[in-house]
Structures are given as structure tokens and as C-alpha cells.
DNA sequence: TAATGAACATTATGTTCATTA
DNA sequence: TAATGAACATAATGTTCATTA
């Protein structure tokens, strides 16, 4: 076991939740997370998002589809990658989330204890 | 800023608190921390304790004194190292603790948000 | 085994670069 | 600039070894 939860795992859980809600592609999720956490002074690095997504694909949780962003190819032909659950993906994802939930609680326990013990 | 608090910083705060309370030497503090956190599945590695203590000395917060562990040198001549605050040490330590408190709260905020958002 | 310390190895990250229907 | 990805660099750890008044 490590000390705190790994950033990667933390991000993966968010990505899973976002895919559940059909929310967007990598860059978009990155922006959303950055916005959501900016008040905490936390800005997830771009590389971590993509690494996390790649891992989820590797692990057979997600698969990818490519699309053009805009509907008018003349104006906007930027390619984006959307993510979806594979057949066993939803199940795997839930298991993973459950595991990470334990980790989050563990970290909360440790940190709360530290506050109690030292302040 | 990083993601979670670093283990080193976390341990340093505990060491400072322990030195405030005159509790023991490195190995002993290690054992105590391990015992305290065993229920969380967290066992701080030995190297981190010593590294943290060395850093606190480097930073001018603590200084060291060497002693023999037992009072009877025939029975026990194991050398131990005790730590004390330097003149400016207490002040520095309090500042450091204050800083880390902010970090702890930040981490708690992030983790609680994650639980709310994903579960 | 207790106690300290250093050396070594590895992983998780952060940073920068490359590419573009 | 938006979007994706890979490459590179480094810091923070975890693991093992050495030493012992």
C-alpha cells in the first residue's frame, strides 16, 4: 500500500464518472476538471488525463471512437476522440470505483487523524 | 503545487510534534507512527523517517545529541540520537506546521469533493 | 535484534516537444 | 489555438545493504 492515493487513480475515477454521463472527450474533460479544482489550487496536468484514458482503454474498460468536432468540415475539421464503455467495461469500472472509494476513505482517515494529532 | 501532500511533509509534522513532547529518538518514533497508522494500512518506511529528521536538522529546526540507550553500558551500549529544537527551531517549526495545515485542509477538500462527485 | 545511515532502484509524476483532416 | 500523443526529465519514494560503543 502507498501513502496517499495516486493522482492517476484519482483522475481515472473522475473520467469513469464523466464517461458514464457521456461528457466529452479528453481535452474537454481536462478543462472541466481544471475548472472544478482551480479553487483548490489543483490543476491536473494534461499528460495525466491522457495517460489515464489510455490505461482505461488498455484495461478493457473503455474503447475509443474518432469524430470530427464541428459538423461543418470546412470550418472545423479537428479530430476528437470519444470514449465509451466496452461490454464488460461498466462492470469493471464499478469495481474499480469501489476499490478507489476504499482508498479515498483511507486517505481521509489518515489526514483527519493528522489534523487531530498535530493541531 | 502538487496533487496530494507529500509523505515527507506529513511525517515532518509528526516528528515536530513528537519532539515538542520530548518523545524519543528516530527508531522509536518510527515504531510509534507505524503502530498508530497500522489500522489504516499505512506503515511509514524507515528511510522516510530518517530523511525527514535529517532535513529538519539541515533546515536548522532541530539539532542532535547522542546518547547511550540504557544506563548500564555493560548491558546495553546501543547509541541513540535525540532531537531538540534549536533556538529558532520552535518558531520555524510552528511556521512549517501552519503551512502544512493548509496543505492538509486542501487535500481533505479535494478528497471530499471526489467522494461527493463520484459516489 | 535495535538503531542509524547510505546506496540503489523504481515509480509516479511534471515538462516539453511534435503533429495535425 | 484546440486536441492528442509521445518523449524526456526529475522528484519522491520504496528497497536493499552496511555498520555497530
From TrEMBL, chains A, B:
Task: Return the SUPFAM superfamilies for the record.
Answer: Winged helix' DNA-binding domain (SSF46785)
Which molecular function GO terms apply here?
A: DNA binding
Q: Which Gene3D superfamilies match?
A: Winged helix-like DNA-binding domain superfamily/Winged helix DNA-binding domain
A single GO BP term for this record reads: DNA replication termination
Q: What name does UniProt use for this protein?
A: Replication termination protein
Species: Paenibacillus crassostreae
Cite the source lineage. Answer: Bacteria, Bacillati, Bacillota, Bacilli, Bacillales
